[in-house]
Amino acid sequence: MSANRWQNHNLDRILIDSATIQKRVREMGQEIARDYQGRSPLLVAILKGASIFHADLVRAIDLQVAFDFMAVESYGASTQSSGAVRILKDLDESLEGRDVILVEDILDTGLTLNYLMHNLRSRGPTSLKIAVLLNKPSRRIVDVAADYVGFDIPDDFVIGYGLDFKQQYRNLPDVWILNPSADSARP
Ligand code: PRP
Question: For atom 7 of ligand 1, which residue has the closest CA?
Fold first, then answer.
């Protein structure tokens, strides 16, 4: 699938191309493998956005890892964060005594990860860290810092590589900027 075939009125331009993403994800995997040498971390993907990043990141970590999935709801269908976080699907695994890495596609206001960190910390993990592909520092409302960051990005609405606009575009291999006029457009 080529990104060009997806060029339509909702896509503005590529912010981070696929090759750059893949290179950075490999580096992040190597960094995590170094930090967790001799351990077997549990990598928790927060669905749905993190699914693509998680799938690439776990394959870039040269360690025995386990993974699990959690689904939360925060944004609704709009481009603005509502601040409300609700668990739609909880973990299968116990976190007691585990080295846990939360894997997210984007750290924006920080509301989602702030909620998740408090929630998961209470489940008794040995350690709890955060890996995000994209970080928007200018949007932060609550003080959350990721331990592993792929890219700091400006305050544009981004789609692709897991990130959606109205549940579409998650399978684009590149990260695109959404056309600012797309709010009123069909997905
Ligand atoms: C996105 C993203 C994070 C959250 C980040 O999820 O995957 O979970 O928003 O925003 P925050 O820092 O402002 O809380 P979204 O609710 O869009 O769901 P999705 O992962 O299913 O796309």
Answer: 49
